[in-house]
Design brief:
By secondary structure, the chain is of the alpha+beta class. It has 4 helices and 4 strands, in the order βααββαβα.
Amino acid sequence: MRLIFRFSIPVQKGNQAVSDGTLALALRSLVERVKPEAAYFHLDDGCRAGTIVFEATDQLQMAEINEPLFSKLDAKIDIQPAIGLEELLEKI
């Protein structure tokens, strides 16, 4: 199942995480774990944020993906299933 994984990190926690290297480690770990088809990093309401699209085969994997961002970065996370245009056109 394809998922769109969005996160945002509060400014103060993000600044601290950049300074101590936690942000780079967390993002590298996330990208290595999910092997995204697309990954974008941007601002969301003035906070550091990211949108990552990847395939997941097991819902239990979500806890492993979410926890480092929750515990180390105080991230707000939103996950939505998604399908591509070709998949949609096949279904309708």
